[in-house]
Specification:
The complex is a heterodimer of chains A (about 180) and B (about 525). With about 180 residues, chain A is mainly alpha-helical. Chain A contains nine helices and no strands. Chain A has two domains: about 80 residues, Up-down Bundle (Four Helix Bundle (Hemerythrin (Met), subunit A)), CATH 1.20.120.1200; about 50 residues. Chain A is globular. The C terminus of chain A is likely disordered. Chain B is mostly helical and about 525 residues long. Chain B has a two-stranded antiparallel sheet. Chain B is globular and about 70 Å long. At the A-B interface, helix 3, helix 4, helix 6, helix 7 and helix 8 of A face helix 1, helix 2, helix 5, helix 6 and helix 7 of B.
Chain lengths: ~180, ~525
Amino acid sequence: MKTSWPDILFFAIVCGIALGAALRVVLSKNAVHSALMLALTLFSVAVIFIAQSAPFLAAVQMIVYAGAVVVLFLFVIMLLGVDKNEDLRETLRGQRPAALGLALLFAVGTVGVIRLYGSGAPQAEAIALGADNVQLIADALFTTYLYAFEITAAPLLVAAIAAVVLAKRERPAKSLSESREDGSA
Amino acid sequence: MIRIINTLQVASASLVAAATPSAEGVIRAPEIDYVAIAPEAILVLGALAILLKKGFVPRRYRMMASVATGILAICASLIATGILWQRLADGAAGTAVSGILAVDGFAVFSKVLFLGIAAFAILLGVPGLRRERIMREEYPALVVLAAAGMMLMAASSDLILTFLALELFSLAFYVLAAFARDLPRPQESALKYFLLGAFASAFFLYGVALAYGTAGSTNLTSIADFLGRGSIPWIFVASMALILVGLGFKVGAVPFHMWVPDVYQGAPSQVVGFLASGAKAAGVVALLRIYVSAFHAARPSWLPVIAGLSIATMAVGVVVALVQSDIKRLLGYSSIAHAGYLLIGVAAATPAATSASLFYLVSYAAMIFGAFAIVSVVSGKGDGFTRIDDFAGLARRRPMLAAAFTVFLLGLAGIPPTAGFIAKFVLFQAAVESGLWWLVLCGAVASVIAAYFYLRVIIVMFVREPEGEDLDSDEPDPITSLGMGLAIGITLVLGIIPQALMSVLAGADLVMPGL
């Protein structure tokens, strides 16, 4: 299957936006800008998913990442307060070379897999043959990975317990009634 | 959007009616083997019950109800595991729930081991945490959820499920490490544990992604088939290395061991026994399941790496432990050395080595639980006295405690008649049989060096005079004494009549697609 030039042009534009926004995420000195640029990056990736006829992934990408996760970041930034005179000196030494090394590792792995198997996993072949993407995902989620899908609930439960255990103060019963009396007085 | 909703409706409808005819556009729900998933499902339900009971039980009885529910869940899960074992004795081993869950002797035995570890965690943890006034109602819930995660590590036959299980018990462990949240040292060590753990999980996940990219599946049986077909692409070798990083972190293998001494020192002594035995056992059973069983055809690729890790781990563990002055750090480095011995069992990759590793894990769990129970009693409030010098003259102050600690230290050193000796003996024997005599030689040298620092603690307890004022450490409460007694019992009984467990382990074979 030969790729037509409008496809290539479209891909180049969207990729350019995604890469540019990703660079801004890392280089921007303002945390709010970084968060918004992250939303743009994730949105561009969602557009690429649509171009690859994966509408479900695109929807999930936008709802979960661009919607929920980035909004969460913004909340945290808002709650901590955006300080103009924030100290931007890095406390972790050797962070940048380490990040570059890991990025290289990721690139080598991804390119290696693509070179080995051009068309990719069986799922990708089925999509290329015109099978319904949503159907394929539902099939994987509710048959092959049904048990794993259900087990996902358990780590989430632990995370909820963790939040309660680490953040909630156990108040003695007496002080609670005292504070209530103070409120009424 | 409408299409998505339609498909979801179809999917949920087909889940309700399990036997829908296979028409176009209809997803057939897999057959769910409820007996196979019961042990973990009961634990998760137990955790939910612990959390929900807050609305029904009066405040005064909540703590008791939490602990009782936790113990009940563990017992019920044990019964479910027993039923599974019985079924296994009747029929052949296999997989359940669309091939994602292995049902074999290895998985079932590991489940019993992890349930025992969880029972010890409640038995020894609850009284100690109450004494420290950091006990929370959620503690039993975290313990049973961690146990469910560790059991899934042993039973998982799919790398996706292994990852979820890894995260499940790791998240619970991060919280347990931070249980004394108002003190700075526990906070620092728990944060370190969390950050490094998340980093290691990312490595593991990337390894899984590369395995999927090369083998076309995350299922261990499919991967074993793929490897059995012939040449192994270099990208798959990278994938095995990355998965090894993730699991090596959990067992505390060098060079991924940096968190071990800090977390053992920082976390409350009452929970360290659980963190130590649980994380190590879960990591080792996953290594056995993934490397020995599924990746068996690729053994020439991973053997040098795992053997090298094993040697480095033993060397760093025993050498650094020599210079420790804090008992919790000493036990931390000793646990790193034990990770090295256990890696010998993984490298040997035979059925005999697998059951030897399980034997080792059982005896190690009993010894490390007992050792940390004693540390938690002697160190007093807020883990104030954990220097080895604080143990000086313990034999005079608390002769029973000193005697018990001696049993555990001799066990960790691997001196007969304790379980530690038999465990090392069968493990080394299995490794020699598969031709790894050079690795066993390193292990033997490490054991000899290790004996020095264990004996040093014993000498400090029995020979040295108490320093300064009499610390007058607490008498252990009856439940802690009971737990210690059980641990001593396991350590000595397995050391004197190991056949009792060996005969059980003969039936706990790992189904090896690669063999």
